[in-house]
Amino acid sequence: MRRSGRMREKINERKNSEPMAYDKNNIFAKILRGEVPSFKVYEDDKTLAFMDVMPQAPGHTLVIPKFEAENILDLDPDYASALIRATQKVAAAVKKAFSAPGLMLAQLNGEAAGQTVFHIHMHIIPRSSGVDLKLHAREMEDFEVLKKHAEMIKAAL
Ligand code: AMP
Predict the structure, then answer these.
(1) CB 117 within 8 A of CB 92
(2) Residue 56 CA, closest ligand 1 atom number
(3) What is the largest CA-CA distance in the chain?
(4) From the CB of 115, is ligand 1 less than 6 Å away?
(5) pTM of the predicted model as reported, rounded to 2 decimal places
(6) What is the tens place of the pLDDT at every residue in 34-67?
(7) Class of the CATH-defined domain 5-156
(8) Whose C-alpha lies nearest to ligand 1, atom 13?
């Protein structure tokens, strides 16, 4: 594929990891504005938690701040602390709902780290010994399953 000079410039901007303006049309910004549906499990004035639609394990949940930040470096400290508080609360419910012996928390910053959605988020993923994770952001889960999992987590909150 031939790329125009402008397109090459844009790709290079991202590759060089220069700070870029927050994209108000990223999918999580749309979820926050209610323009795209999500399987919500928890909400407060500063955060929202919902099911990952391509879970790496059953119960994979995301927590996002209601603040326009691509990554941890851009996040207002008050929202960073609200994000951790909400993550702790939702993680306890995920652990209970899925009887998870372990929990993995992950937060990726920048394309080079594997970030694919550029609104900061925490991943909460149940783990069991000897059970491998599915690949990251690869396989869409059945919406009925996600709905049921969201209900299980809400009941455990
Ligand atoms: P990251 O690669 O850390 O940016 O993670 C982004 C996560 O968002 C991936 O695990 C995706 O499966 C998940 N994801 C992408 N689109 C949606 C969506 N519309 N609703 C819920 N999760 C999503």
Answers:
(1) no
(2) 10
(3) 53
(4) yes
(5) 0.89
(6) 999 999 999 999 999 999 999 999 999 999 999 9
(7) alpha beta
(8) 52
